[in-house]
Model the fold of this input.
Amino acid sequence: MRIPIIAGNWKMHKTVDESIELTNAIKRSIYEIEDVETVLCPPFTSLSDVNEMIMDTNIKLGAQNCYWLNEGAYTGEIAPKMLKSVGCAYVIIGHSERRAMFGETNETVNKKIVAALKEGLKPIMCVGEKLKEREANKTFDVIKDHVEGGLKGIAGEDMKNIVIAYEPVWAIGTGKIATPKQAEEVHKFIRELILKMYDKSVAEALRIQYGGSVKPDNVEGIMKEADVDGALVGGASLKADSFADLIKKTNALGKG
Ligand code: 13P
Done:
């Protein structure tokens, strides 16, 4: 049994005050939910305040990125150790926006995953193809490259602390969600790849999130698929109503 995991990636949204307001509203709306793991990933500047507010709940804290070293002359970077010290349990690594705009590669993703695990953080590793790659029938090649590259040298025993998020780039922020069938075939492919790289128990325990235009009105279709274990949510996580709604709908599916 894999507990569904819904994470809100707030991206570069919300000041501290706005983060507090949103967290309060989310807390109030989902206090009864027990069978879905909920993660909030606010910007770095709000981590500490959000952490204070969710300490007495089941909600977990996540960051949106980290560096691969724990200290040094790296102006503007944030270390895994620092994220741990403000209460983070998770860290998103290799989001397509970071790959596209900030020079993230499989190599940097891999270094960050190693560093995060060492500090006891759980990486949410993002993988996903661009529209051009899908149209050229390269989806599975890209996913294989991202998964194998990002997980290079990662031991089977560490895999229980890793979540993979399949985020087709063409579905992010576009309102054009992958169909349940499109999502499931990639999720299944990832699980089979993990089976080849590790073993059956690792593959069966791995949680694979879908991300890209997930909303309350489409979450059930996606979540019903056998290999979809959660969602990484952007836009719909910025409003308490929509985020709580999709968590409740996921909970009602009884997958946990
Ligand atoms: P949207 O839900 O806004 O499409 O963003 C998805 C995403 O990138 C989550 O990491």
